[in-house]
């Protein structure tokens, strides 16, 4: 595709999404509502494919991950424990002239409503001082809207996993290390939603909380902690992996997933957050960024969160989030005194830092750290966690931007014209195969084409189209991103000889080449190419 300016490409993408039924503005007939989007027929299929592929890789094909589907509204204390009530804020400023409201840390990126060629930061309008704005949507549970019935729409899916950790651990018969995965809606009252669906107020997340043993427990059991190479996939999980190896493993697993659905590694950036950028509870965080037309932005974050979340919920709920691990207890019992004492001391020092970060009273830090270290020697600990957290909507937008292409193709008269084609990977393509009768006014062609459609439908997402010239129908499916078009013609009926009877023409979306395939072999032929 000829190089397009970023703004031009984004305009073309947004236009295509509306025209072809990928994404619509929510409540459009009433003027729309900012930060909310609906997925049309093609978008719904694309989004469903993304979620099913993620779920298959993260849950179905693994022995060490279980699934969860939790409620959107949870007990308000969940959000107090997680810190969202007190700290989930963005800095906000108002413009006293244009009456606009903006995130203070983004004013250099946002166009001014009164002066579109200038950013809010460049605009001479008078702005208020930044003030915190909590991003959670507030609602009420029950018949009375008072302070006792306040609840929140969840701003992330992760906290439900932490709250249900012990239940899942016991009912799934898993053992640490293991993960809990969830896909679901989240809500954030963004000050300035922007960049199409990238920053929305209602969105979906695909999150995994992968629970691991503290490094001191791993070292007691395995004798040492594996040191990751710093780049590349570390291979299959090993019993001597500490949190650094697990973090590298999940970063590489997630990048491999993106590659498997059509995002080349060259379009991705692996960004390791600097120490000053980390959340206070995080030991390390790696952001996987995608090169969108509007800039390189985050698709997913993979964070080593320590035991912060489970510890917070244990403290606020009064319910234990600890696990007893007989293997850990036995390993510590077999260590010589010097080694056992060294691991105790290291864990103790780490816990003092953790308790200090969580605001534990100064006079209790040493006591609580000592208790936790003593418990570890007896095989009891709160698991640590590695969290890969991805946005479904951001990924769908990345796939759409990556797929958009323009080239030249001959029209019905052989003249070259611009062709818009969505080059989705077959795994995520909304429609896998389209079926066409060559002419709709020939009942025998239509009947045979519908037979082919019915043959394919149990195996693939199929679209049947008999309206318009065959070239126009091809173009419509190119814009939808359909990998293959199957045409039933007179050769199929055997009118030009028995050799081609019961064969169809299969057209490749990307190359536009055509191939004759026997109807009886069509399902397997397509299945092989749609993997």
Could you characterize the architecture of this molecule?
With about 525 residues, the chain is of the alpha+beta class. It has a domain at about 430-530: Rossmann fold (3-Layer(aba) Sandwich). About 35% of the residues lie in helices and about 25% in strands. The chain has 16 helices and 23 strands. The protein has helices spanning about 5-20, 40-60, 75-80, 85, 160-165, 165-170, 215-220, 245-260, 310-315, 325-335, 335-355, 360-375, 390-405, 445-455, 470-480, 520-530, and strands at about 25, 35-40, 65, 90-95, 100-105, 130-135, 140, 150, 180-185, 200-210, 270, 285-290, 295-305, 325, 380, 385-390, 405-410, 415-420, 435, 460-465, 485-490, 505-510, 515-520. The strands form seven sheets. A seven-stranded mixed beta sheet has the order 3-9-10-16-13-12-11, sandwiched between helices. The protein has a five-stranded mixed beta sheet with strand order 20-19-21-22-23, sandwiched between helices. Strand 22 (about 505-510) and strand 23 (about 515-520) form a beta hairpin. Helix 7 packs across helix 10, helix 7 packs antiparallel against helix 11 and helix 11 (about 335-355) packs antiparallel against helix 12. The longest helix is centred in the middle third of the chain and has 21 residues, at about 335-355. It is globular, with a radius of gyration of 28 Å. About 35% of the residues are buried.
